[in-house]
Amino acid sequence: MKLKAVLVEDEAQSREILRNYVGKYCSDIEIVGEADTVSKGVDLIRETKPDLLFLDVEMPFGNAFDLIDQLPEREFEIVFVTAYDQYALEALNNHAAYYLMKPIAIDELQKAVNHVKEIKIKEKQLEEQLLKTTQPKVSGKITIPQLDGFQVLDIGDILFCKADDNYTEIHLINKKILVSKTLKYFEEALSDFGFARTHKSFLVNVNEIVKYRKGKGGSVVLSNGKELLVSSSRKRGLLSFFE
Questions:
Q1: Pairwise CA distance, residues 41 & 35, whole Å
Q2: What would the CATH number be for the domain defined by 141-242?
Q3: Omega prior to 103 cis, within 30 of 0
């Protein structure tokens, strides 16, 4: 599968190094354009519609996050390339598929490219088939602590869980329950029952997913019509449920 890539980086030498690395070590990637400013990058992306964007963080007249803000609807994956590791958290919050530090290590570049390829291959496969999880229908029960005791729920009745600070909202078909446990607690408790962490805020019963929508991280639509975000860092893990 050949992927189109765009490189947005203000330093000519850095563009040349990355271009040469990609050409030599990433045969499935074709760089279809380069830009050295935010505005040129936005225009180039809209024109070429790439699968992958290699994006520097610091640029003249703006930065990577200014570029991202101008492209709220996007189907390409982002690999950030920067010499400053303090941007890592913000990059992940902006749904970066991967984060590369300068000077670029060839093995890390290949990991980043392979990560994006896996995502794109699985997205294409899902477009060509009915969305059907490989997970068996779950059965079992979970105990939910409450102020006056506890409640026992059938795990299969849970559509998704949503983080609310140190609490978690458990969403069932007709109601939701607020529990004084973190989402991480339920992620661990439900790890063997076909639940996927799609976002820092969501834990989803994959058997209830009826549609996947591509985008900056993508989103899933559940059987009740609810649409939930998927972050790029979680996308590959989610899509693995449908292999």
A1: 5
A2: 2.40.50.1020
A3: yes
Domain boundaries, the chain: 3-127, 141-242
Cα distance between residue 81 and residue 91, in whole Å? 10
Structure tokens at 86: 């303090």
Task: Give pLDDT tens digits along the chain (243 positions).
Answer: 789 999 999 999 999 999 999 999 999 999 999 999 999 999 999 999 999 999 988 887 888 888 888 887 788 989 988 887 776 656 655 567 788 888 999 999 999 999 899 888 877 776 655 455 555 666 788 988 877 778 899 999 999 999 998 999 999 988 999 999 999 999 999 988 999 999 999 999 998 988 888 766 678 889 999 999 888 778 878 888 876
| 187 and 203 Cβ atoms separated by less than 8 Å | yes
Q: How far from 91 is each of 100, 105, 223, 232, CA to CA, in Å?
A: 11, 19, 31, 11
Alpha carbon 168 to its chain's center:
22
The CATH code of the domain at 3-127 is: 3.40.50.2300
Q: How far apart are the first and last CA of the chain?
A: 17
Contact 231, 199 (CB under 8 A): yes
Beta bridge partners of 188: none
Q: How many Cβ atoms from other residues are within 10 Å of residue 190's Cβ?
A: 20
8 A C-beta contact, residue 100 and residue 80:
yes
